[in-house]
Specification:
two-stranded antiparallel sheet; mainly alpha; single chain; 10 helices
Length: about 300
């Protein structure tokens, strides 16, 4: 947390000012996301690799009954089975999503507490106790669906309310509003805008790749059909590669996330305009609550699932 000199002592509030529970949960989410993504990528690559030996116009023959090219396919398919088995036991994707939900929930609650967002309005009696109760209620719901609470494993988890959170809560309304708009709302707008660009690039790259592989498979198939080329299984490899690219693109959800992130970014823009112009201190707690609802992973996921 950094204080900016000025008559109202404006503050900068960053992720570093959040409690240790957030940082630990966020780190787990990042690690499990990387594991889940790498596992899926590896499975798709192995499936394509397994189809290559059968498509080769020649076969490496050692003179015996063993064909090394076939052994490559065997090892590739065995690798897929092994990674699938270990992935089903580790459940990286499930743990990634649960820990991401927990981290974002903790972060949202901390911001709402620090800037007097609902239900931690200025008039709230014993706001720290209310914060602890509301946080535990939310985390309890996540524990019911499989989230593992890491606090028992943390050597020094610290408190749920940091000194920076208390300091920001004690600031005047104008300081809290400026800090929230700049360090939360505008920062989130920028994040969603960047994700839109990443998703657009991903959609373009994978759409072009899928189209190119499919077109090449079509051309080779036409040549073989009319006797203009030898008959071998290369179109099958190209089809497998195109299918793998399609599965990867669907897993990354580039296209639906473009629309979802665009809608969230527009909603945040409207909230920013309202907060910087017409919003009163009396309306502030509800506005913060609504902003936090908009940036929640559940809201983004709902938008992504319902985009046409």
């Amino acid at each position: 947390m950094t204080a900016i000199p000025g008559p109202l002592q404006s503050m900068v509030f960053r992720n570093a000012d959040l409690p240790a529970l957030f940082h630990h949960t966020d780190a787990i989410a990042i690690a499990r996301q990387r594991e889940a993504v790498n596992t899926t990528r590896g499975q798709l690559i192995l499936l394509v690799l397994g189809s290559v030996p059968a498509a080769l116009p020649w076969h490496w023959d050692t003179g015996g009954s063993l064909r090394p090219s076939g052994l490559i396919a065997v090892l590739a398919y065995l690798g897929v089975l092994m990674t699938t088995f270990f992935a089903s036991r580790r459940k990286a994707k499930s743990h990634w999503q649960l820990n991401r939900s927990a981290a974002e929930f903790i972060k949202s609650m901390c911001w709402r507490y620090a800037v007097h967002g609902s239900p931690f309005e200025s008039a709230t009696q014993h706001p720290e106790a209310v914060f602890a109760n509301r946080l535990e209620e939310g985390l309890q719901e996540l524990r019911k669906v499989g989230w593992t609470d890491p606090r028992d494993q943390l050597a020094d988890s610290g408190g749920l309310i940091t000194d920076s959170m208390r300091e920001l809560r004690d600031k005047a309304f104008t300081v809290r509003k400026e800090t929230y708009v700049r360090d939360r709302l505008i920062e989130q707008r920028g994040w969603y805008r960047r994700r839109q660009e990443i998703s657009r690039r991903g959609t373009t790259v994978w759409s072009v790749t899928i189209s190119a592989l499919t077109a090449l498979a079509l051309i080779l198939t036409l040549f073989q059909t009319f006797g203009l080329a030898r008959s071998f299984a290369l179109p099958g490899v190209l089809s497998a590669a195109a299918a793998a690219c399609l599965a990867w693109n669907e897993m990354r959800r580039h296209h639906p996330l473009i629309s979802a992130h665009s809608l969230v970014e527009k909603d945040l823009e409207s909230m920013q305009i309202a907060m910087e112009t017409t919003l009163t201190e009396r309306q502030w707690p509800v506005a913060v609550f609504e902003t936090e609802r908009i940036v929640s992973p559940q809201h983004t996921d709902w938008l992504a699932r319902h985009q046409m």
